[in-house]
Structure formats: structure tokens, C-alpha cells
Amino acid sequence: MTTSTTPTIVLVGHGMVGQRFLEALAERGVTDRARVVVLCEEPRPAYDRVQLTSYFSGKTPDDLSMVEDGFMERHGIELYTDDPAVTIDREAREVTARSGRVFAYDTLVLATGSYPFVPPVPGKDARGCFVYRTIEDLLAIEEYAKDKTVGAVVGGGLLGLEAAGALKGLGLDTHIVEFAPRLMPVQVDEGGGAALLRTIEQMGLTVHTGTGTQEIVTEDGSVTAMRLSDGSELATEMVVFSAGVRPRDQLARDCGLDVGERGGIAVDELCRTSDPAVFAIGECALASDGRVYGLVAPGYEMAQTAAAVIAGPGDEDTKGFTGADLSTKLKLLGVDVASFGDAHGAAEGSLDVVYSDSRSGIYKKLVVDGEGTLLGGVLVGDAESYGMLRPLTGSRPPVSPEQLVLPAGVGAPVALGPSALPDDAVICSCHNVTKHAITQCTSLPEVKKCTKAGTGCGSCVKVIEKLLPAATDKGLCGCFSYTRSELYEIARTLRVTSFAALLDSHGRAEAKGGEGCEVCKPTVGSILASLNNGYILDGEQAALQDTNDHHLANLQRNGSYSVVPRIPGGEITPEKLIVIGEVARDFGLYTKITGGQRIDLFGARVDQLPSIWTRLVDAGFESGHAYGKALRTVKSCVGQTWCRYGVQDSVRMAIQLELRYRGLRAPHKLKSAVSGCARECAEAQSKDFGIIATASGWNLYVGGNGGATPRHADLLAQDLSDAELVRLIDRFLMFYIRTADRLERTSTWLERLEGGLDHLRDVVVHDSLGLCDELEALMAAHVAGYQDEWAATLDDPDRLRRFVSFVNAPDAPDPSVRFVPERDQIKPDLQILTIGTLEGATSR
Amino acid sequence: MTTLELSLSDDSWMAVCEESRLTPGRGVAALLPDGRQAAVFKDRAGRTYAIDNRDPFTGAQVLSRGLIGSAAGRPFVASPLLKQRFDLETGRCLDDDEVTVTVYPVRTVRPTADARPTT
Ligand code: SRM
Ligand SMILES: Cc1cc2nc3c(=O)[nH]c(=O)nc-3n(C[C@H](O)[C@H](O)[C@H](O)COP(=O)(O)OP(=O)(O)OC[C@H]3O[C@@H](n4cnc5c(N)ncnc54)[C@H](O)[C@@H]3O)c2cc1C
Ligand code: SF4
Ligand code: FES
User: Same fold for the domain at A129-243 and the one at A419-472?
Assistant: First the structure.
């Protein structure tokens, strides 16, 4: 092919849809056969406008970029940023850019998006007035808001609420002024709007519905107030207009292309404008069904269609764009809002089924026809069922609509699973992926890779997971087909003392000889530590520990560590308190009282840990094991010694227990508390083992839990003497350690244990399995073998060598660990990124 | 004594540390001349790897403190913060196709008799 015959494709507008169009061209190999030129008005290449607001939660403009590194170079695409197209000469087939560059085209694609509509009110151009569309808009809002205290948003639609959330996040007293009688008038109906309003007002935003904006009042050219349609004035220092968007069709109008009466570049099903050499896609286009779509998914479909048409015949995507689903699920200001199908019940003869709970701000409405066919719906406050309901639109659900709107746990259980969905149900609406396509895959990563489903808004992931083959494999991880408790038994009976030996002898065939993984290494490390109770960081053991155990401290989000000295029972002398204060002051650490009756010192660099601990160990402190799956704290109430109600010395008992079980490695962390009487000030019944004093001794409760799934502890035994209490706890803990699964707290373990509490009582009180001697002996070995890990580390230069920031510059502090002041202390100087966190990540 | 070396974008190699400083299965961080940081690892078989130390999910310089493992025979490190896994040979994130970290070539150099490492 010679240059003269290479066709040129010019794309005007490098937004979300423009970028998708380029990807679709590249996928079809068109970029190899054609010169592709992109004119981009903004100073940066395409970014994720849908996630724009996440800039305020710490994402950088770079994080939002939609262009993979090297994409343009790889496909030979010429991209001109900061250089918008200004005129199109269709006769000559030329586009002129602002810089004066002129490009001849064979095919022109317009993807110019929309502009925010600003109502023509006096004062709209004053200093302090903004729109909310681009990164530059956000930067300007952020800068201006720095010394302001009040802000208002004009428009209570989807974008208005996002903008309001952003202003609130910037610390402003925020008002929302909406002309319609409810929030989000397009997506939700009256009931949904009311539920939304309640929730948003509870967050401290002020909402003015049914109110127009008449004038922006200014002083010296800056906003000072808004005059509202009811004549009142609302004092505000800035105004963000979010009153809808309009297609950017000026270029098209200027060159005589057909545009719609109310705007939008008219296109046919193949996204061609009135000039067959010119295409229009995305928000600037008026689709053949007479609509301008303000959502990204329809724009992506148009991008695929246009690319397929340009690529030539035979492409299955050339079937054309005939309209799209307007379903949306959003998380606005933390409230789930979803609408799908015929949300307003516009179809003739449609009926509503409504569930509304104003106390919790939940509103759900399904629209059905006379035969029970689901037509659409609105969900506010609880959009859990969106992923299931949307694909069912147009069909008759297998259970009644009443059951579908009731919250779980009310009335008959709903037996509606994704298996009830038809094969062609669209599960992921962002990428238009059907159930059939998803069931061709076997894992979530595979689904994401092959179909892109789940990589957009993410709302379909839960349903996708349910469609994938159920995990029947109970094995610990990809390396072992045994559970944790089975591995414990194997290690115990065969006296295995190394991870490598266990992996090579009992690992899955494909994992033998390998490295293991981040799941089994710490698990086996913990089993070996429970069985052998030596120092956990020597030899091969060092490589098994999670980073927290490896550095005997807790890793924080900026790479620094926190230090938690043990304070048994929460009792501490003034001298020791002073030492903690001095250490914190001398090393500049952030200091906080924890929820576990001790003190956490944050912000230590890895290379500072040894010097900090030298000071602490010298003052008599030991490691608090805040980093380990081990005993955390035994909290106490002040008890009989001081309290007028106390019947036993709860502090003494708490200290005794904490010193006995400190350092004990377990499947998950262990917590305890001792209360001096039934008033329970130490909250013992929320602990793995909790003790409450009685007039004649101690009651022992087990299996309690705070955290994500709280569980009240069960009473295991009553009126125990000191010795009986300790013996019973020894047995209980060792039985748990031996039989529990990885990351299973005593609460979940007890729930799962066959025979439950009665069986547990049989084993540890009545010794039904004849195990008790062995369990006690294991605990005795633990108590005898305990040593303070920090003291042992400081004693050994070899062990200290790991505490450097850099192996090649042992004296250099890590410059990336920086702090800024806050409330007279420090806090990490780090943008908080949240690119899709893995679920349950903390527990892995 | 064997030295571990790492290559930056050009053809030059910089010494990081004695190879024996690395514990199999764990990593160390190295400071690069331009201020970037590398995470250097050794696996059970003694193979060495280096990737960028910055965890792209949190922005913290911590990948060197993650645990390494293998999946389908390929080595990876799991970030110690949110546990996303990165292939040590390609830098690709196994949990998110869109994310990759830089990989640095590494080699071990045993000094010859005249103690001059050859390239
Ligand atoms: C520091 C502290 C918060 C505070 O400032 O008060 C804290 C901080 C953390 N908690 Fe907690 N928890 C703290 C008291 C609690 C409590 C209250 C208590 O112990 O009385 C609870 C509820 C009680 C319970 O556990 O049943 C609590 C329930 C959790 C959970 C949920 C556990 C569950 O079973 O659902 C996690 C997550 C986990 O372990 O998987 C968690 C995890 C964490 C982690 C380890 C998260 C992590 O992996 O990074 C935090 C580590 C902080 C650090 O680096 O030092 N933390 N955490 C408290 C330390 C207490 C101490 O002195 O050791
Ligand atoms: C805060 C916010 C939140 C949103 N949330 C959602 C959501 O949750 N779900 C959803 O589906 N949609 C959402 N949207 C809408 C979504 O962003 C748009 O549908 C999508 O960006 C449209 O893509 P586009 O490429 O057509 O237009 P755009 O992304 O706007 O891109 C058009 C580009 O063309 C450029 N341009 C214009 N004229 C010219 C010219 N003459 N020369 C060169 N370049 C030009 C513009 O500068 C712009 O960069 C949201 C939008 C915003 C602002
Ligand atoms: S639990 Fe009882 S003894 Fe302890 S502080 Fe409360 S009232 Fe006093
Ligand atoms: S529906 Fe948004 S990612 Fe699937």
C-alpha cells in the first residue's frame, strides 16, 4: 500500500466514546490500514468522566485516564491534545484545528460529547460560578472552595447530586436547588424521590425542591447569594450549575449537517450523519430512535457500530444501533439508587407494586403489566436486587412481584436466583454481556477478561459470581486441597516442621515444588508457630509471615507502621504512660487510644522500629501482637478493688489471662475481657472468650464477636474457681486452634461446629474425646516457650537486618513516607487511591 | 560472593546487594538513582526478580514487603496492603487487567579472578 492510497480517519473529540471508538478500530486492525488522527480539545487524553467525582476521594487525573500506556504509539494514532477542531469543509473534506493544522479526511467521526447547560439567569458568569464536566472544572472548583464555607448546586439530578456530594466533601455547607418537585426527577418517581430526600437531608445537605433560580447575586463580580423563584435569597459563595447537558453540535450545524430540532447530530442506525463520509457517536449524536443518550453505555455501542461500518462488511457489529436501555444504578452520596425499564409506569394498564420504609429510607417500586410481566422499576436505599431484576425486565418473574420487593427476612423467602434468568438476559449492561456469554467462563477474572462484564460500574459482579460454577473445592487455596484444620493434623501427627516439606508432600500436584501463595504461607506459618512455638522469624519461617508479622508491626496505608505495646488488662503505671508519651514525642508519632484499651503509635518508618522498641523494651514493654493472628487484648473493667458493685478482682484476672495467652498464634485473632460483675462494663460477651464475675467465682462465655458480624457469646460454664477457669480456657483455645479454618473467629467456628455448644462442652468440660490432657499439654508448652518477640529481635543483629528501608542504602529513610500536620499531630501525606479494592482484602 | 544487579532503562547495571541478603520467598526494596524504588525478590529455586516498589492501588512503596507465591507455575507477589497480585516476570496485575507495574531486568554476577564483572 502506498501512502497516497492510505485512507485517513479523523476523530473529533477524545472523550470516553471517542477512546472506545479508537479501541474498536484497533481491535479490527483498521489502524494498520488507515491513518488515524485525533483532535482533542481538552489538555489531556480521554479519561473516565463517569468516575470524575472520585478525583475528590483521592484519584489523580492519571488514575482516571482511559488510555492504556503506549496505546497511541502502538497503533500509530496521531493525537493532538489542546487542539479542537474549529471548522469542517465537507466539500474539500478537510478539518481545520485551532492551531491552524489542516487535516484532509476520507472519514470523519464526531464524538464531541455535550456541554453543561447553564440557565440564562443574570449573574451566571460571575466569579464563583462553575459547571461540572471536566477535570479542569473540578480543579477550579477545588481551588475556589479553599476559603469558602457555603456552596449551592443548581439541579438535583444525577450530576447535581454528585456535584453536591463533592462540595460537601470539600467541607462546604451545601444546598441543592431543584426546579422539579423531587430529586432525580428523570430517574425516580415521587416515592423514590421522597426516600432519597430524607436520606440526603440526614447527611446534612439542604434541599430546596420546586424552586427555580432567578438570579445570581454578586458583589464586586463574585457570587454572594442566589435569588430563588419564591423571592427568597440564599446566601452562597459559589454556585455549580448542573441543570442538564446539551449535545455539542455546533461544528455540525456550521457545516450544514442535519441536526435535530432540539439539538443533536442526526444519525442513522449505522451512526452515519446526513453526509455518508461523516459519522457522529456518543452524547453529541441524535440516534435513529429520536433520542440523545446521556449515558456512556449507549455511546460505547455507537462507537462499536461506527468502527464496524468503517472496518467494512462482514463485521457482526454492523447490525446497527437502534436504541439502548436507560437503566442505571448509582451510588450517590452513599445511597443506592437504581431505575430500569419503564420506571415511571408509562405503559398503558401498568400496575405498581411498592414497598416503602421511610424510617430506613428504602423505597422500591416494580412496574408490571396485567399478566405480571415485569416492565421496570425504581429502587432507592437498597438496590441489592437490581442486578437480578433488570435482566428479568420483559419476562414474567418466577415469583410474585410482592415477594420481589419485600426485604430479605420478611415474609416467604424468595427463591429467585440467577439460574432463573433466561440465557439471553443481559447481566452486564455497561458492556452488554448476556448470561450465556458469562456461563462460558469459569472464574470472575476470566469473565472480566473475555467479556469485559463487571469492569464498568461493577454493579453486576454479585450476579456474575452466582452464575459461575460453585466452589465445591474446600481446599485452602490453589496450592492445597486440604483445609486448615486438616493441615494442622497432618503437621502435628507427621511432625512436619517446614512449609516446603508440607507443600512438597501434601500440596496439590501442580503446586508441589512451587512457591505456595499468599494464602497458604501465613496459614501454615501460623500452624507451625502454634505447634512449635519458637521465634517466628528465623529461617524458612520468616518467608511465610504476612508483612505485619515479618516486621512485628502493622503496615499502614502509606507504607509506615504502627506500634502497639502490650498493656495487659489495660492497666498501666504513670511512669509507663510517660515513656509512651516520650517515645511518641521523640519519634514524632501519631498517638491514639485504641478500642482495645491500649495505645497505638502510628507513622514509624521501618528503619525506626528497632530504636522505638529499644526504648519501649527498656521501659518494660512487650510486643502487643497487634500485627499477628494471635491474642490481642484482655480488656478489664476496674472491678471489685474500686467499683462499688464489683464482686471479684477483674483487673487481676484480666492481667493473668493476658500474660498467659500472649503470643499464642491462632487461626484468627483472639480477644477477651473480664468484667467484675453482671453490669458487664468490659463487654466480655462480645469476646472470643469473656469472663464475668459472680459472687462465687467466674462465668465463662465463648464465641462472642464484635466486628462485622457481631455475635453474643454463649455461656460455657458457671461459677468456676480461678484454676478451673484457666484450665477450661486452655482447652477451649487449643481445641479451636486445632479445628478451626483459616481466618475463622471463634464465633463462626462455633456456629459451624457440628453439635454446637453442647458438643464443645462435651469435649472441653466432660472430655468426651479424651483430648483434654493433650490440649492442656500444648498450652503448657506455649506458656513455657513464650518469649517477647521484640526483645528477641533486638538481641540479634541478624534479625535486625531486615529493618531498613533500602537494602542498598541502609541509612536512607524512605522519602515516600511523608506526613502533614492535623489536629496537632501527623497524618500520612498520601492521596487515598481506591482503584477497585478486592473484597475481603483485610482478611486475606 | 555473588552480587545482585539491576538494569535501568539504558544498558547499565547497578549493584543492589549481596545475593545472600535475600531470603527465598521474600523481597527487599532498593533505592534507584532517580529516586524510584525497586522491589527485588528471590524465589525458592533461587531465581531473582525486580519490579517497581510502588503499589499502584494505594500509591505506597510497599510491594517489596509482600509475600511471593506461584500460580500455574508463574511467580507473583501479593501486595501487603490490599493483596492484589502482580506477575514478577511481566509486572501484570493478576487481579486487574488494566494495571501493570514496571519490571526491571536483574542478574547475579560472580566476580571472576580479576574481579571485574562482565556485561
Ligand atoms: C487500632 C484499632 C482501632 C482503634 O484505633 O481503636 C483497630 C485497628 C485495626 N483493626 Fe480492629 N482495631 C481495634 C479494635 C477492634 C475492635 C474492638 C475491640 O477489640 O474491643 C473490634 C471489634 C471486636 C472484635 O474483634 O470482635 C475490631 C474488629 C476488627 C475486625 C473485624 C473482626 C471480625 O471478626 O469481624 C477486623 C478485620 C479482620 O480482622 O479481619 C479488624 C482489623 C483491624 C486492622 C488490623 C485492619 C488491618 O488489617 O490493617 C486495624 C489495624 C490497625 C493498626 O495497624 O494498628 N478489626 N477491632 C483497635 C485496636 C485494639 C487493640 O488495642 O489491639
Ligand atoms: C460527573 C459525571 C458523572 C457521570 N456519571 C455517569 C454514570 O454514572 N453513568 C453513565 O452512563 N454516564 C455518566 N456520565 C455521562 C458520561 O460521562 C457521558 O455519557 C460520556 O462521557 C459521553 O462520552 P462522549 O465521548 O460522547 O463525550 P465526552 O466524554 O464529553 O467527550 C467529548 C470530548 O470531545 C471534546 N470536544 C468537543 N468539541 C470538540 C472539538 N470541536 N474538537 C475537539 N474536541 C472536542 C470535549 O472536550 C470532550 O473531551 C457522567 C458525566 C459526568 C460529567
Ligand atoms: S462490670 Fe461491674 S464491677 Fe466492673 S466496673 Fe462495671 S459495675 Fe463495676
Ligand atoms: S453492569 Fe456495570 S460493569 Fe456490569
Answer: no
